[in-house]
Design brief:
By secondary structure, the protein is α+β, with helices and mostly antiparallel strands. Among the domains are: 85 residues, Immunoglobulin-like; 70 residues, Immunoglobulin-like (Sandwich), CATH 2.60.40.10; 89 residues, Immunoglobulin-like. It has three helices and 24 strands. The N and C termini lie far apart (205 Å). InterPro entries: Ig-like_dom, Ig-like_dom_sf, Ig-like_fold, Ig_sub, Ig_sub2.
């Protein structure tokens, strides 16, 4: 918004600002908290022109804006009237905030400005492909979110966002047992019921198969000091204002202490039997190994004995052959001619 102004030049101009009419206090816009960070003054006193820039305009900004001049002389101050009339074309999304799943709902981009050239829709800040004035939803759970719209060519001025929440009855209802695994008499068991719904289910009922009435209520069903009478098939039912759903059946089987002791005894006996069998098998295998080792030792000794005898026989034969060779070698020496001399001695008596 802009204006031009004149004033008596004999007075010194000391202050200028913009005001919103009607304003009993006649204060500058920047003195009001709702305008403080959205107002910008631009003024050229030589040319005697002034500009008011208003950012983030809303419907509440619709009013008459005037320029105010104050001089140094008391009572010499003026307001430029009539001022500038600001009309705000309100752009808003018209839609119900709560819708039921599968219910068809229309969102309308409403504008007081007739000079529009198409619309742009946003969901959670992301541009949608729909470009008409009306956005139609089939109300799936994924449709929950914040919707806004803008006039084509003025995308920087979107409407305030409107939240759409899709409501639906309980779904995917299920039961969990804690602790899991084998349940023994005297244990404490908790059955928990969960479901997906909007708004969240607040009513939970527990049923035991073949019983006409509910056996418990609340999201958790606790059985303290459980016994065999609690064995059976259980299910829960979750409910909100839009409907209800039953879970699948879960079985609770309680085993007595004596049954557990019997199972432990059987397991221990089986373990001992298996252990004895393994020990017997190991003994047999060890005996066979020892026997095999002994047999191998005997065979080795026999082979060594046979080898020794064969060696002795070969040594004897070799010795005999050696004696024969020695005998043959000595024969030529015995056949050599030996010469001997004999001397006869006669006694004196014989000579006489």
């Amino acid at each position: 918004m802009s204006c031009s102004y004149t004033y008596p030049q004999q007075y010194k101009l000391i202050e200028t600002f913009w005001i919103k009419m009607p304003d009993a206090g006649i204060k500058s816009l920047i003195e009001y908290p709702e305008y403080k960070d959205r107002v910008e003054y631009i003024e050229d006193r030589q040319k005697q022109t002034a500009v008011l820039r208003l950012h983030n305009v809303t419907k509440n900004d619709e009013s008459e804006y005037c320029f105010r001049l104050i001089t140094e002389k008391y009572k010499e101050r003026w307001i430029g009237q009539p001022g500038i009339q600001l009309k705000v074309s309100a752009l808003q999304v018209k839609a119900p905030q709560l819708v039921l799943e599968k219910e068809r709902v229309n969102l309308t981009c409403d504008s007081t400005c007739s000079l529009t050239d198409g619309f742009i829709w946003y969901k959670n800040g992301q541009v949608l492909k729909i470009q008409s004035e009306t956005l139609q939803l089939q109300s799936e759970r994924s449709d929950s979110g914040r919707y806004s719209c803008a006039v084509r060519g003025h995308e920087h001025l979107p409407s305030p966002a409107v939240s759409i929440t899709v409501m639906y009855p309980p779904q995917n209802t299920s039961v969990f047992i804690s602790p899991s695994g084998e349940i023994v008499e005297g244990d404490s068991v908790t059955l928990s019921c969960s479901s997906d719904s909007n708004p969240p289910a607040l009513i939970f009922s527990w049923f035991k198969e073949n019983q006409s009435s509910a056996v418990g209520s609340g999201q958790s069903f606790i059985i303290s000091s459980i016994n065999s009478s609690h064995s059976g098939r259980y299910y829960c039912e979750a409910q909100n204002q839009h409907g209800s759903q039953r879970s699948a059946i879960v079985s609770v089987s309680v085993k007595g202490v004596w049954n557990i002791l019997y199972i432990i005894a059987v397991c221990v006996t089986s373990a001992i039997t298996v252990g004895c069998g393994l020990l017997f098998l190991i003994i047999i295998i060890v005996q066979k190994r020892i026997k095999k080792i002994n047999n191998d030792s005997k065979d080795t000794e026999q082979k060594k004995t046979s080898a020794g005898k064969a060696s002795e026989s070969r040594d004897a034969e070799n010795a005999s052959a050696q004696d024969d060779r020695d005998t043959d070698t000595k024969k030529p020496e015995e056949e050599e001619i030996a010469y001997a001399s004999i001397t006869f001695h006669h006694s004196a008596n014989e000579a006489k």
